[in-house]
Amino acid sequence: MRIEAVELREIALPLRFGFETSFGRSERHVCLLVRVLADGLEGWGEVPAGDAPLYNEETVGTAWHVLEAFILPTVVGRVVPHPHDFAAHVAPIRRHHMAKAGLEAALWDLLARREGRPRAALLGGTRARIAAGVSLGIEPEIDRLLERIGSFLQIGYQRIKVKIKPGWDVAVVERIRAAFGDILLQVDANSAYTPDDVDVFRALDEFNLLLIEQPLAEDDLLDHAALQAQLRTPLCLDESITSPAQAGKALRIDACRIINIKAARVSGLTAAVAIHDLCRERDVPVWCGGLLETGVGRAANLALASLPNFTLPADLSASDRYFAEDIIEPPVRLGEGGTIAVPEGPGLGVAVRLDRVDALTRRFATFR
Ligand code: OSB
Ligand code: MG
């Protein structure tokens, strides 16, 4: 693929419902859209980084900078044979995983379109529908959260995940179990706790949760291993798993028994598939996480989640769970049995609504 031009757009898409985690509250999904033009075709990718470095260290501003100053000058006007070559090419740049992943995603889209195949087929996907879960933020009152859970279960979502933080944990889970019985339920702390909080996790251990996601600090595999040793509930790591090498270390010391895979967090689909493969060899289940992506990132996540070892329900919900109107056509819809269809058309398998993207764009540049 000879890269003729790359367009970057920073957009802000209002969320239908504010989303609160232990690290903050967002009312809008802020991201970069990457559009690559090559061989008369286009490919799209998303950098779901946000305005502030709260989930991890990246922002849309840092991603724009790294792409503009260090990555695009070495790619535009050149030939990139395969997304794997791009991944190897940017490996010497330390971190900035979301920036790299956004461009790599656009290259996967391009390659799949050029071959006239769906992205999922290119990656080795084996399932046509993904089990859909929904991730629910912290609410001002438990009753409000229970109401929202009830409505998502009613429309068919298979699994509920709730965000927790100190003061919003055991009592919340207790009320959810009392109200909804034995539903598939898991919690996500986004690193809000320390090893001193072991009693909270011992208490949560009594509720038959599917998993407890990222309880402790991102850079602390050792304390996660110590905590896992005291629990029956599997720990699942999100922020801590930044590469296949980190995944290997986490599994070697039993710091987790499940991994949440997000291509954006691990520098791209190449690394995401490598983590999937490594977990599969070790019989460790994985599932596809999300970062409130627009349809562009969401369609890519659906393709990733079609790989065989993604055996737990994903944080992949319909476009209307987040947005009044998505930027793709058709939008992502929840189908039978609480599943979402993996797009079947070439590339991402959905069309980007450029008119709508333009209306949402607050920063734009073309690099050629
Ligand atoms: O930790 O999984 C997370 C959203 C923003 C930042 C971090 C996380 C999340 C989610 C939502 O849990 C996942 C989604 O529905 O896209
Ligand atoms: Mg998480």
Note the beta-strand portion. 15-25%
Strand order, main sheet: write it out: 5-6-7-8-9-10-11
CATH superfamily descriptor of the largest domain: Enolase-like C-terminal domain
CATH topology of the largest domain: TIM Barrel
Structural class: alpha/beta
Q: What is the count of DSSP helices, taking H or I runs of 4+ residues?
A: 13
Could you state the order of secondary-structure elements as H and E? EEEHHHHEEHEHEHEHEHEHEHHEEEHE
Total number of strands: 15
Measured between the Cα atoms of the first and last residue, the distance is 15 Å
Q: How would a crystallographer describe the biggest sheet?
A: 7 strands, parallel
Oligomer: single chain
Second rung of CATH, namely the architecture of the largest domain:
Alpha-Beta Barrel
Poorly predicted tracts of residues: none
Shape: globular
Ligands, ions, cofactors: 2-succinylbenzoate, magnesium ion
Rg on CA atoms, Å: 20 Å
Kindly give the count of domains.
2
Q: Considering DSSP H and I runs of 4 or more, what fraction of the residues is helical?
A: 25-40%
Arithmetic mean pLDDT: 97
Q: Supply the CATH class of the largest domain.
A: Alpha Beta
Question: Can you offer a commentary on this structure?
Answer:
There is one protein chain. The mean pLDDT is 97. Helices cover 35% and strands 23% of the residues. Helix 9 (244-252) links the parallel strand 9 (235-237) and strand 10 (258-261). It has helices spanning 60-71, 83-90, 97-115, 119-123, 142-155, 170-180, 198-204, 221-228, 244-252, 269-281, 295-305, 319-322, 354-360; strands at residues 3-21, 24-38, 41-47, 129-131, 133-136, 159-163, 184-188, 212-213, 235-237, 258-261, 286-288, 328-329, 339-341, 351-352, 361-367. It has 13 helices and 15 strands. The chain is globular. The strands form 4 sheets. The chain has a 7-stranded parallel β-sheet. A 4-stranded antiparallel β-sheet has the order 3-2-1-15, with helices on both faces. The chain is an alpha/beta fold. It folds into 2 domains: 5-116 and 353-367, Enolase-like, N-terminal domain (Enolase-like, domain 1), CATH 3.30.390; 121-341, Enolase-like C-terminal domain (TIM Barrel), CATH 3.20.20.120. The structure holds 2-succinylbenzoate and magnesium ion. Magnesium ion binds at residues 188, 190, 213-214, 238, 260, 289.
